[in-house]
Amino acid sequence: LTTDSLSFCSKLLNDTGVAIAPGVDFDTVRGGANVRLSFAGPRSDIEEALHRIGAWLG
Q: At CB < 8 A and 24+ separation, what contacts does 20-23 make?
């Protein structure tokens, strides 16, 4: 989708209200094409976030 994980995460947050971590935070060399998700929280919140991400991705 992109090699700019920071912009991808920022746009996702602005458009959907779902926060994910840009891969560049964990690997400055190759992390630009990756993101990290946390599955800590109530199942219903996780399912809603995944639904929003899926709808956003199309």
A: 20/53
pLDDT in tens, 17-44: 999 999 999 999 989 999 999 999 999 9
What would the CATH number be for the domain defined by 5-57? 3.90.1150.10
- Matching residue, tokens 């992390």: 31
**CA–CA distance from 9 to each of 44, 51 (Å)?**
21, 16
Mean predicted lDDT score pLDDT of the chain: 95
Give the pLDDT score at 1: 74
Judging by beta carbons within 10 Å of its beta carbon (0-12, 13-18, 19+), is residue 42 exposed, middle or buried?
exposed
